[in-house]
Write a structure and sequence with these properties.
Mean pLDDT: 85
Radius of gyration: 19 Å
Low-confidence stretches: none
Shape: globular
Largest sheet: none
Number of helices: 12
Distance between the termini: 45 Å
Number of domains: 1
Length: about 260
C-alpha cells in the first residue's frame, strides 16, 4: 500500500465501523435521522483528516523530517472546511452551549491523541481508547443534527457507544497475534474485568431506572461472545469474525437508538 495513503488510515481497530455505527446510532436516536444522514460526509471528512493532521503536529513538535507538504495541506484544508461546516450546522441545531461543550471534548481528546503520538505510543491500548472516545463523539453530534433536544440523551448515547466499542477493541487486541504470553494474559484479564464490570454497571443502571432495558440487551450478545471466546479461544484470523462483530454492532445500534429516541 502507498505510504502516503497509509498515513491517512486510522489506527484504531474497526474504526470505520465505529464511526458509522456511532453516528447513525445518534442519528436514529434523534427526531429526524434522514436529516442527520445528510451531514455524514462531514463527519467522514473529519475522521479521514484526523490522523494526518495529528501525525504532522507530532512530527513538528519532535522536529524530525517534515511531513509531505501536499498531503498535509490537503488534510488541514479538509479538516478546516468540514469542521467549520459541522460547527455551523451544530450551532443551529443544538445551540452554542452544547456545540461548545462538544467541541471542547473533541479538542481535548485530539490533544491527548497527539500527545500520545509524541511518545510513539499511538498503538497502545490507552491511545486506542482515547481515539475511540474521539470517534464516538460522532454519536452526540448526529443526535443533535437529527433534531435531538436533550443534552443528557446525547451524552448517554456517546457513553454507551464508547462502552460498547471498548469491548470490541479489547477483544480484537486479545485476538491479535505477536503479543508475548505474559502480555496476552494481561490483555485477557483486562478484557474479562472490563466486560464483567460494564455488564454489572449497565444492569444496575437499568434496575435503578437510569437506562431503559433494551440497553442491557444491546450489550449482552457481544459481552457473552467475548466471555465465551476468553474461555474457548478461537483459531484463525480475526478477520473471519468481522461479519459477526459487524452484525452485533448493528443490533446494538438498533436497540440503543430505539431506547433513546423517545427521550
Amino acid at each position: 500500500m502507498n505510504r502516503a495513503f497509509r498515513s491517512w488510515l486510522p489506527r484504531e481497530h474497526g474504526a470505520w465501523a465505529i464511526l458509522a455505527v456511532s453516528y447513525f446510532t445518534g442519528a436514529f436516536a434523534g427526531a429526524e435521522p434522514l436529516v442527520a444522514a445528510l451531514f455524514f460526509p462531514l463527519a467522514l471528512a473529519l475522521f479521514v483528516a484526523r490522523r494526518p493532521v495529528v501525525t504532522w503536529i507530532a512530527w513538528q513538535l519532535r522536529r524530525p523530517a517534515p511531513a509531505p507538504l501536499a498531503g498535509t495541506a490537503l488534510a488541514f484544508a479538509l479538516a478546516a472546511a468540514a469542521g467549520a461546516a459541522m460547527l455551523l450546522f451544530l450551532v443551529r441545531a443544538a445551540g452554542a452551549r452544547s456545540t461548545l461543550l462538544l467541541s471542547l471534548a473533541a479538542l481535548s481528546l485530539l490533544a491527548l491523541v497527539t500527545w500520545r503520538s509524541l511518545g510513539r505510543r499511538d498503538r497502545s491500548l490507552s491511545s486506542e481508547m482515547a481515539g475511540l472516545l474521539l470517534v464516538t463523539l460522532s454519536a452526540p453530534a448526529a443526535y443533535f443534527l437529527a433534531g435531538g433536544p436533550n443534552a443528557g440523551t446525547a451524552v448517554t448515547v456517546w457513553l454507551l457507544a464508547s462502552a460498547y466499542f471498548a469491548t470490541g477493541v479489547l477483544y480484537v487486541r486479545l485476538r491479535l497475534r505477536g503479543f508475548s504470553r505474559r502480555r496476552r494474559r494481561r490483555l485477557k484479564l483486562t478484557a474479562l474485568v472490563y466486560v464483567l464490570v460494564s455488564a454489572a454497571a449497565i444492569a444496575a443502571a437499568v434496575l435503578a431506572g437510569l437506562l431503559p432495558w433494551p440497553v442491557l440487551v444491546a450489550f449482552a450478545p457481544l459481552q457473552a461472545y467475548v466471555l465465551f471466546r476468553a474461555a474457548f479461544p478461537a483459531d484463525g484470523n480475526i478477520r473471519g469474525e468481522g461479519f459477526l462483530l459487524a452484525a452485533l454492532s448493528l443490533v446494538f445500534a438498533f436497540l440503543v437508538a430505539a431506547a433513546c429516541s423517545g427521550s
